[in-house]
TrEMBL record:
<keyword id="KW-0808">Transferase</keyword>
<dbReference type="InterPro" id="IPR027417">
    <property type="entry name" value="P-loop_NTPase"/>
</dbReference>
<protein>
    <submittedName>
        <fullName>Sulfotransferase family protein</fullName>
    </submittedName>
</protein>
<dbReference type="InterPro" id="IPR026634">
    <property type="entry name" value="TPST-like"/>
</dbReference>
<dbReference type="Pfam" id="PF13469">
    <property type="entry name" value="Sulfotransfer_3"/>
</dbReference>
Length: 384
């Protein structure tokens, strides 16, 4: 059953490295809106609910709740909780005994802790699950961030996660852009808002006023003071998100011109030039000639590199280890008869060549096993 909340839920979406974290920090500083760290609940759990068996059975529902509650990258979103009782508390406050109910209970608890009436979520890959979100929350609102894919790719290639060469980066950005096309055309202006990263960075005030008007909220100057917030300050300690600890800046606009070679720009134009033009950006190089053999070579190299870098400084091995553990639990439930191959829905993202990436995995399981990447479940560093 759908859940219609009086305070409409907000979803900030967009391809990674497109400014979603910036807008998350800004809107999370609004006096009425609580936006916690990324959850990855829809990509990691929603398509795989079949693997938990009948959720009307208490133990099956509890298993789902347990994996969701303890699976956050930032443990419990910093909320003061008793780990021994938190799952019981979430289940008791869930408006429905299902995924959406557990999801609601988690976000409403966070909003109460923040003393705010409304909540939002920023998980970039929720853009692949707009339909499922609407099934669960019919009055949800979506803000989609678009950034020049070449800038996003330049950032990817220097980050501790995501695509490691221009072939893979362009493919991922293209996939994200195309995923939202049907929803941009279908949803009305009361449910969908497009925001350009470049406009937000150059002149944030009018853009934020537009966002607040879309949300039906009064603009607050606190949005421009986002960099002093807890999330921004924590993220600002990391190499990948250091700019978040400072006021908004234009220095990252057009970074591809100094960081991507002309050959890389040409490769991007070949793979995602159409989507780049559709998004309003100019393509100023001739597309490269790429055959399938070369493309597949670089896509495999990307996956090999991702697996090898998981354990490097600033790698994402801790959370990747939990993701892999989730798959282990799924396979164990299959062994115990909770589900079979016939239960897997014949719908996206099942069977998609980028299914694991869509679900938030930083490397394909087969390459982690190939290189014998060992799991690590504890960390003393900032985990995002």
């Amino acid at each position: 059953m759908a859940i219609t909340l009086k305070e409409r839920p907000l979803f900030i979406i967009g391809s990674e490295r497109s400014g979603t974290t910036l807008l998350m920090a800004m809107l999370g500083n609004h006096p009425r809106i609580a936006v916690p760290e990324v959850a990855w609940y829809y990509p990691r759990f929603r398509p795989y609910l079949f693997s938990y068996g009948d959720l009307s059975q208490t133990q099956n529902l509890r298993t789902l709740a347990d994996e969701m509650v303890f699976g956050l990258k930032t443990p419990f979103w910093d909320m003061p909780v008793n780990p021994a009782t938190i799952v019981d508390e979430i289940l008791a406050s869930a408006p429905q005994p299902n995924f959406a109910g557990i999801y609601t209970a988690m976000f409403e608890r966070y909003a109460r802790w923040q003393n705010k009436p409304r909540w939002g979520e920023k998980t970039p890959h929720n853009l692949f699950y707009v339909g499922q979100i609407l099934e669960d929350f019919p009055n949800a609102q979506f803000v989609f961030l678009t950034r020049d894919g070449r800038d996003a790719s330049a950032e990817y290639l220097r980050s501790a996660f995501g695509p490691t060469n221009i072939f893979a980066a362009a493919r991922t950005w293209k996939l994200c852009q195309n995923a939202v096309k049907p929803w941009r055309e279908t949803l009305d202006t009361g449910q969908w808002l497009d925001v350009g990263y470049e406009q937000l960075a150059r002149d944030p005030l009018p853009v934020l006023r537009t966002v607040c008007a879309f949300l039906g909220e009064e603009f607050s100057p606190a949005l421009l003071d986002f960099h002093r917030g807890t999330i921004a300050q924590r993220r600002g300690q990391t190499r990948d998100h250091a700019p978040l600890g400072q006021p908004v800046s234009t220095q990252w606009i057009g970074r591809y011109r100094r960081e991507l070679s002309l050959e890389e720009q040409a490769i991007f134009a070949t793979i995602a030039g159409q989507e780049l033009t559709e998004a309003g950006y100019s393509v100023d190089v001739e597309p490269a000639q790429i055959d399938d053999k070369e493309l597949n070579l670089y896509l495999e190299r990307d996956q090999r590199t991702r697996a090898a870098l998981l354990g490097a400084p600033d790698g994402h091995l801790v959370h990747e280890s939990y993701n892999d553990w989730l798959i282990d639990q799924r396979l164990e439930r299959k062994r115990r008869g909770f589900w079979s191959d016939q239960d897997v829905p014949a719908e996206f993202p099942h069977g998609h060549p980028q299914e694991e990436e869509i679900a938030g995995y930083r490397a394909q399981r087969r390459w982690k096993e190939h290189f014998g990447v060992k799991r690590v479940y504890t960390s003393h560093e900032v985990v995002l």
